[in-house]
Every structure is written in C-alpha cells, then in structure tokens.
Design brief:
single chain; 757 residues; alpha/beta; Aconitase, domain 3; Aconitase, domain 4; 3 domains; seven-stranded mixed barrel; six-stranded mixed beta sheet; binds iron/sulfur cluster; Acoase/IPM_deHydtase_lsu_aba; aconitate hydratase activity; lyase; metal-binding
Amino acid sequence: MAFDIDMIKEVYANMAKRVDEARNIVGKPLTLSEKILYSHLWDGTPSKAFTRGKDYVDFAPDRIACQDATAQMALLQFMQAGKPKVAVPTTVHCDHLIQAKNGATADLKSANTTSAEVFDFLESVSNKYGIGFWKPGAGIIHQVVLENYAFPGGMMIGTDSHTVNAGGLGMVAIGVGGADAVDVMAGMAWELKFPKLIGVKLTGTISGWTAPKDVILKVAEILTVKGGTGAIVEYFGSGAKSLSCTGKGTICNMGAEIGATTSTFGYDDSMERYLRATDRADIADAANKVREHLTADDEVYADPEKYFDEVIEINLSELTPLLNGPFTPDLSTKVGHDMTEKATAHEWPLAVEWGLIGSCTNSSYEDLSRASSIAQQAIDKGIKMKAELGINPGSEQVRFTAARDGILGIFEKLDAKIFTNACGPCIGQWARYSDPKNAPKNSIVHSFNRNFAKRADGNPNTHAFVASPEITAAIAIAGRLDFNPMTDKLINENGEEVMFDEPTGWELPPKGFEVEDAGYLAPDKDGSGVAVKVALDSERLQLLEPFTPIKDESLKGAKLLIKAFGKCTTDHISMAGPWLRFRGHLDNISNNCLIGAVNAFGHKTNLVKNQLTGDFGGVPDTARAYKAAGVRSIVVGDHNYGEGSSREHAAMEPRHLGVAAVIVKSFARIHETNLKKQGMLGLTFTNESDYDLIQEDDTFNFLDISEFAPDKQLTIEVVHADGSKDVVKVNHTYNAAQIGWYREGSALNVIKRENAS
Ligand code: SF4
C-alpha cells in the first residue's frame, strides 16, 4: 500500500529546478497548474513556452489508477506490451461492479460470486505486473487514492473521469482512456493538449449549512456543463485555505461535471493535516520544504486576470446551500422556497423517496460525520424519517473509523442501509426496481456528482438532485424537496414543532483513522511465475491476440461496411449499458460495433448491405462475413467522428472485425489517436464533399498505400456498382512513429518488439 516517498522526493527535487527553468522560458510568474505541468514534461527541461489550448505536449505522470470496469481491457492490452512490470506505480480498485441491494455484507458476497472471474483476473494480473490491488469492498478508487497516493505537486492519470478528485490534495490528476494508461504503464509518454487555465478566487468562509459541495454546485451553475472544457480550474484565495482537504476533493471531483481537464488547489495547512492524519507525515515534511513550488507565484493570485484565461470570484460567506438538478448537474436552485416554485412549475415531484450519501464525491469521514449530526438530531428530537436513506462509505478506512466512532450506528438507528464501500447507486449498481423502465415518477436527493436520467436506478422518471451530505440527510428526513432546514419546522412524533440546528462534524477523526484490513494486496516482487487467471470459456474476459499488420494488397478491393450519417460518437460505435459486462472480452463486445450508427443508406441503425451476398444484416455480422471471406472493410463517417469518451473499444472493435480504414470529414482527436494505436488507418477527405460520392456498393482501392508517409496525401479509387469510378484524395496526421505502429499492426506490437530486442 505504501506510497514511494523516494519517488515523491525526486519529484520535488525536479520541481525546484524545473519551475525556475519554466519561469524563465515562459517569461512571467507561474500558476500552480503550470508549475506541475512544466515539471512533468516527458523531455524533462522545458524547451519552449507552450500555447494553452493549442500545443500538444508529452508528459510523464507519476502514478496511474484504474477502476475495475476500465482496468480489464487496459490490462489485457498491457499484457501485449511484453513488459515484466508496469513502468509507473499503478493501482487497480474494485468498486464499480458491486450492486447495492441488501446492505454491505450480503451485497459484497453477491458481487464476489457474480464478478468472481473479473476480480480474479484483475488480482492475478496485478500481482504479475507489480500493480497494487484493492479488493472489492476496499473502497471507491478516488477516495482510496486521496487517502493513500495523492500528493501535492504530483501528476497522475486514471482510467476514470473522476480521477480529478486528487486535486483536493494539490495534484494535477486527469481521467484518461485505457489506451493512454497502457502507454504510460508500458513506459511511453502521455500526450495532452496544454490546457487553458481558469482561476476561481474564493473569499470569505463557509459556515452553517453551507458545505464545500455548494462551492462546486455554484461553479457548475456559473460555468455550466461545458464551461471548463479543455481547462484546468485552479482554486485560490483565503476561502480556499479555509476548506478541508476532503472538501477540496469534493470540489475538484465535480470539476468533471463542468468538463474541466482537472482542478487543483495549492498546498496548505489543511492538506498537511490530512497527510499527517492518513499516516503520511513524511510527505508533509517533504512538501513543506518545497512549499513555494506547490502554489502559484505570489504575483499570480495578486492579479489573477493577468495570468488566467478566465477568473471567477465566489464569496463563501454569501454562499447558501444549493440543490442541482434534475437530469443535469449545472441546474442550481437554492434550497427552500425557490425549489417550491421551480418544482411546481416543472412538475418535479416534491416528495423525496430516497436520500443517498456517498460516491467518490462525498464519502469522507467529515462528510459522514456532518450528515450524522443531522441524523442524531432526528433521533434526539423525535423526528420520523420520511424517505429512505442509503450510505456508501468511501473506503474501508472511513467505514471502520466511522463505525468505531458511532457514526454509522446513528444512521442505522434511522434504519438507513449501509451499503458496500463502493460506487453502488452512483453508477446504476442499485437494485431499486425489478423493472426500472416502467417505474414511477419520483424524486431522490444524493451527494453524488452525476444525475443524468437513469444514472442511479435505471428509471427515466427518477428526478435526481445533487446536494451536500448534510442537506441530503435533512431533506431525506423531511421527505420534501423544498425543505429548508435553516427556516422550516418539522412536526415530531409528539406533535411538536421542532427545527434542526446547524450541522456539526469533524474534519478528521478526533481519535485518528483506524482500519483492521484496508483491503489492499501488494503485488509479488517477482511476478514472473504468476499465472494470469482467464478461463478459456469466459464470456467476460478474453486474452488478446496481437493484431496483424494490414497488408497493402488487402487494400485493393476493400468493401464499404457502413457510411455513418450525422453524429457518430464513441457511444454509437461501442455502446455502453448492458455491453459494459463484456468490456474485457473483445470478441463478445465487438457484437456492439457501430450498432448505434445511422446508415446513410436507409437511415436505419445496425442495418447494412453485405456486398458479397446482397443481403442486409447487422453491422457486426456483416463485418464478420467480410472478414471470413478475407475481404477488408471500410467505414465512412461525417464530422467529429468518434467524439465522446476516450474508450479504446471504439477503435479495437472495428480493428478486430477486419475494418482497415475509417474515412471521415473530421475526427474527434482522441478517437483518431486510438485508431492509430490499434494499427488502423484514420483518414479525412481532402474535399469534404467527397463524402457524398460514396455509395452503398462501393469498393475501395488504395492506390499509393505503399508510399504511406508523413504529410503525404493518399489516393483512393472508389469503384461504384455500375463500374464508374471516382478518385478521392485523403489526408492523414500520422507521423513517422505512428506509421510504424500501422506497419507493425499496433503501437503495442512496436513496444513489444523494442522490449524484446
Ligand atoms: Fe464514478 Fe460514481 Fe464510482 Fe465516483 S462513485 S468513481 S463517480 S461511479
């Protein structure tokens, strides 16, 4: 479990040197984000001042964290790299595959049965390749990372969008796709567009019912769900220093909900307290020695408009509790009367059926203690609980300590369900209904981060509102969405009018954290003898075979598989939902390949013509038929093809099914890179209007693929059913190394060869 203090000291030693160099090159004082970015350059010393929002830069992250759903394909791919161990400290966390139903003990037992083969695979592959393994029930990835691995000034990537949570401890922590994580595990650089910078100045202090959650709910209201795109949000000011470390984690966590690359805070006393409380005094001591590098230069915060691309100011003393939702996390309403009006106007149910406290966003000791102070008042004042209450502690360490201190016992006295230390309802792992699609309209309140339709319980009619843990507790107890605990009275069991007092709690456990078994398994020092467990007949896991290079000859006579019409996101290419189950089995998940894409001929989904037989069928079946006949296939698409997530399955599936090239008007960049990594051709029409030339029965002849070279267009002859031909020019962005990936079948094949030589 131990973090590597020597590695952290090395980061700090580099930082001291590189920050000075970067300041000279940039020619002005630096923000904290720039200090961390410039001190983690792959090439070490900065060679130039990078243009924010424009330059692509190679970085060298300090750590990687993977959750159980995304780790499967990432680690199956890593196994292809031929490396004996991961190049960068890495951990795997089993938290997404545990359904909340009957309570922690029963639910964990059930998950350990239903997902046994996935957990066994992850445990064995982690053991083999030097990866720390956190067992099911050990906790939610981001809470465990904050407690054990995050450190001020560090850079990490994680295969989960809420990796950004570690900004609460002063990191630049960024969510990535599995393919990016595999690169770094295999010892390659990680590329990122140098982010823009948004500064958020916090003044005043929060008090009473207002919580750190309300800060990010307010920021989400101001910036909306897209406002942080491509930017790091850096919080500063006296208000920032007044917040606890886990409170800062909450704020950074929900930076994902405004689309931010990540969010971070400068190192301060709250972080030092948290490091010491979580048994990391040596990191605090090391950080104290480089304190000036772990926050922005003084000039930056004195005149932020000069150094950030955008600046927002929030006075915490004026901030009041908010409820954001339903269906989007940026729709803010002040608790109380404002909600009465809005809910009535929009016909949102005012009765609240569930309150849920937990998720990686709000599951710290402080969160549970403050919410429990409200629960205790309900017991003391004889208030009957109106809604149901569910709790997911963030980690076994938090759960054990909260149980020891009587916090969980308070919730249990109110008949709350204590679920597993895992994601549970936050990711739809909640057995609330037997038939969610036909479940009734209702409202719930939770302290999670996302509240899109169906996210928690699969019911499209559930109106989910996001709030702080203490407001969630109060509203669940009152059973009304528009309950204002600051002004409203409740009638207790004796018929008396009573009111809640302000919540109280502890930033950190007064008696310290304690845990008997944190749920961590350290890997073998020498994993060479460890066998990775994958059953040959498994439906959910499949060892990967290296992709073979696409031969130039096979690019004569390639057939159109589908001409996608309009938007074609990674969800259209590789759907989520029930398919998540097959994320570790390439052949099985390939049965969802492009089934959401609209065919430009006939405008139906998952119905394309097999040119060999003339029959119409599903996209995966047709691709398999071409592959079986030894015929390569081609996908044609519109603008921004592959936008959405960074999921590598969207590139691996067509590659697996024999697609040789994806030719589009334009690509979403990450997907284009993923195609390159899998050894395929990702090409764009030189004349966008050539998209219109492509017909249903087209055959493609790549005329000059043997001369594939950087900055050189390719020429394709498109032969139509009537024998007529069009010659189409296509562009590409492959550099020499990427052409090497294509020529050798994949980027991993190149790494494997280099490793072997
Ligand atoms: Fe993702 Fe929710 Fe789990 Fe956090 S708790 S990692 S948001 S599923």
